[in-house]
Fold this sequence. Notes:
- With 148 residues, this protein is α/β, with parallel strands linked by helices.
- A hairpin with a 6-residue loop joins strand 6 and strand 7 (121-126).
- It is 22% helix and 30% strand.
- It has a single domain, classed as 2,3-Dihydroxybiphenyl 1,2-Dioxygenase, domain 1 (Roll).
- The chain is built from three helices and eight strands; from the N terminus they run H-E-H-E-E-E-E-H-E-E-E.
- It has a four-stranded mixed β-sheet with strand order 1-4-3-2, with helices on one face. Strands 5-8-7-6 form a four-stranded mixed β-sheet, covered by helices on one side.
Amino acid sequence: MQAEQGQIAKMRVKSQPLIAVRDVRASSTWYRTLLDATSMPEHEHRRRYDRILCGGQLILQLHAWDEENHPNLTNADAAPAGHGVLLWFEVSDFDATVRRVRSLKAQILEEPHNNPNSGQREMWIRDPDQYVVVVTEPDGEENGRGNS
Length: 148
């Protein structure tokens, strides 16, 4: 049992979400602005692929539709963008992020509000490819405001 626990303690998972977009450069600019983030240095595949980074950590990958024959990255019009998927970002400065949302003129699905379950403020928007994006302040349970 102890050996099993040791293996579990060593196991780490890092999420690396990838979404298909119509214009990688435009989406990269949009996400970098929204999240006050950076991206990869200029490279030859920039029109097909980019990575969005915060603090040097990968938070989102962008890939052009119908490029490089990847499964599920073809036929952008086959289904609604991201049906059943939410891109959820916890941000350290929620108020500054809300200002950036407004400067981007993003479609707002839900204005900033308090989540009744966690107590944290969140805002729901759509990105240029119609994916639903949620930005939240740090988790209310972690900062002592959650409902128990």
